[in-house]
Structure formats: C-alpha cells, structure tokens
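RECORD TYPE: protein structure
NAME: Dinitrogenase iron-molybdenum cofactor biosynthesis domain-containing protein
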Amino acid sequence: MKIAVITDDGKTISQHFGRAQYYLILTIEEGQVVAREMRNKMGHSHFVSQSPAEESHGAGHGMDASSHNKHVSMAETIADCKVLLCGGMGMGAYQSMTQLNIQPVVTTHRDIDEAVQAFIDGKLIDHTELLH
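PREDICTED:
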C-alpha cells in the first residue's frame, strides 16, 4: 500500500494541505516502510491565475465545484495512494480526497516517521475537528 504525506522538507508533516510543496510517498508492505519517494505537489499558488481575487475563507470555502476541480488536480500525483496524512486541510479538500478514494487523515503528529508508525499500528487518530 502507498500512503502520501504532505511535507515541505521530507521530515515533517505540513500544517496546510493547499500550501505544502511536496508529497512524500511511502510504500508499506507487511507493516514496514519499504520505499520513499518525493513528488511535487500542486498547491494554491498554481491556481492564482484562475482566481484573481482571493476568495474569502468563510463558511463554504473550498466546497464549490471549482475548488473540487483544483483538489482533483492536486491529487492526480497521488492517485496510486490509499491514504493522505496532513496536519490540516479545508473541509472541501477533505471531502474531495474521500470522493477520490483517498482516505485523508488529519494528524497532530509532526514527525512523518512517528505518524506513519502510528498509522501502521492502527493508532493514528483522524482529527477532523481541525478541518477548516
């Protein structure tokens, strides 16, 4: 199984899905990480030309069809992954990942290796209260 982790440095989990620069892809077999791969990740900055006026981050932000299409674009790179670990994301991105059959998990862990081990052990908590 492959899981993706949003990161800017390959060691820590980024706090915001849309702003992270990379995905760290981890291949897990028989409870062990057997491969790691960094992949570029599309983010908010890639869509600036599509929405010249910055949208408000109020209720409903990121829940419209245009936002879903952006989330789909961000997820193309991880279409082979079953899980996405992040430190935070919007409700719209969370729902989009779910619709794409990628299980998003919002974690309070910052260290990637600790979070991945907790996931492998079945002890990683999805902190949906941190969605915005």
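COMMENT: The radius of gyration is 14 Å.
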